Task: inverse folding
């Protein structure tokens, strides 16, 4: 039950607990194909309708329409972020055994890379790399962008990694660029990114890298 109103169920908390339970089930027993499809449908519906928060406390249904969100305060927003992590953990585990979900889930993961919460970005990145084995070798270089400072140094290391691996396949370069640009865009949007001067410096470093 919700704390502020004993006559109204705490749907946000209940949904969070349901996904935590599914996470444990997904780790111990692969779900049948039909159930996986239903779980994915539920996850996509939740992200599209309820989750997409931006810094202005707005839910984004798509790239054109924004609807104000009655979030119920910071506690509800934090709980929804925790729910997002639980959902992503479930999808990441299930999709390993169901590769045909790649197209449907790749679009969701790419959008979530642009989120302003680093923990959500990290979970989405983990899912992307789990679906795309060719990008797995870049995991440490992409993941480190989400931790600490020294943004420029990290981009330099990523560029050096390109040279070491002699990446020549244009398809892989495009996929890697898509992941990197969305990831960095989310970092630049986040409240903790620093001053306008920092943002401009990060952008110039990113463009130099590209």
Result:
């Amino acid at each position: 039950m919700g704390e502020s109103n004993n006559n109204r169920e705490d749907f946000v908390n209940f949904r969070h607990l349901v996904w935590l339970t599914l996470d444990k089930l997904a780790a111990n027993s692969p779900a049948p194909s039909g159930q996986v499809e239903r779980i994915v449908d539920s996850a996509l519906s939740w992200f599209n309708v309820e989750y997409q928060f931006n810094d202005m406390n707005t839910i984004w249904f798509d790239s054109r329409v924004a609807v104000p969100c009655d979030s119920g305060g910071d506690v509800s927003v934090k709980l929804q972020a925790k729910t997002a992590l639980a959902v992503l953990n479930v999808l990441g585990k299930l999709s390993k055994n169901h590769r045909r979900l790649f197209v449907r889930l790749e679009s969701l993961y790419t959008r979530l890379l642009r989120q302003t919460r680093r923990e959500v970005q990290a979970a989405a990145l983990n899912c992307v790399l789990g679906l795309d084995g060719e990008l797995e070798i870049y995991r440490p270089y992409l993941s480190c962008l989400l931790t600490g400072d020294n943004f420029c140094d990290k981009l330099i290391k990523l560029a050096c990694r390109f040279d070491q691996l002699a990446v020549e396949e244009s398809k892989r370069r495009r996929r890697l660029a898509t992941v990197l640009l969305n990831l960095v865009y989310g970092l630049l949007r986040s409240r903790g990114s620093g001053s306008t001067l920092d943002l401009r410096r990060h952008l110039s470093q990113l463009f130099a890298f590209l």
The first strand starts at residue 58 and ends at 60. The beta strands are 58-60, 66-68. The chain has two domains: 1-131, 134-210.
